């Protein structure tokens, strides 16, 4: 049972990170800013997502 729960949570987390990357890509931020946010989200998913939610581009 632990494997199924872990796999489901991992899938949910992956969907959230992909959603955040898509939101960054569609934002009105500059190209370099978008690239930096996407790299932060890819290399530091947990911390990157929290920081992006607090300080990331809005809109």
TrEMBL record:
<feature type="transmembrane region" description="Helical">
    <location>
        <begin position="36"/>
        <end position="55"/>
    </location>
</feature>
<feature type="transmembrane region" description="Helical">
    <location>
        <begin position="6"/>
        <end position="24"/>
    </location>
</feature>
<keyword id="KW-0472">Membrane</keyword>
<dbReference type="Pfam" id="PF13396">
    <property type="entry name" value="PLDc_N"/>
</dbReference>
<keyword id="KW-1003">Cell membrane</keyword>
<dbReference type="GO" id="GO:0005886">
    <property type="term" value="C:plasma membrane"/>
</dbReference>
<keyword id="KW-0812">Transmembrane</keyword>
<keyword id="KW-1133">Transmembrane helix</keyword>
<protein>
    <submittedName>
        <fullName>Phospholipase D-like protein</fullName>
    </submittedName>
</protein>
<feature type="domain" description="Cardiolipin synthase N-terminal">
    <location>
        <begin position="15"/>
        <end position="57"/>
    </location>
</feature>
<dbReference type="InterPro" id="IPR027379">
    <property type="entry name" value="CLS_N"/>
</dbReference>
């Amino acid at each position: 049972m632990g494997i199924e729960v872990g796999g489901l949570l991992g899938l949910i987390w992956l969907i959230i990170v992909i959603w955040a990357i898509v939101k960054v890509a569609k934002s009105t931020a500059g190209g370099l800013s978008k690239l930096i946010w996407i790299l932060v989200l890819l290399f530091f998913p947990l911390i990157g997502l929290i920081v992006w939610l607090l300080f990331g581009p809005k809109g």
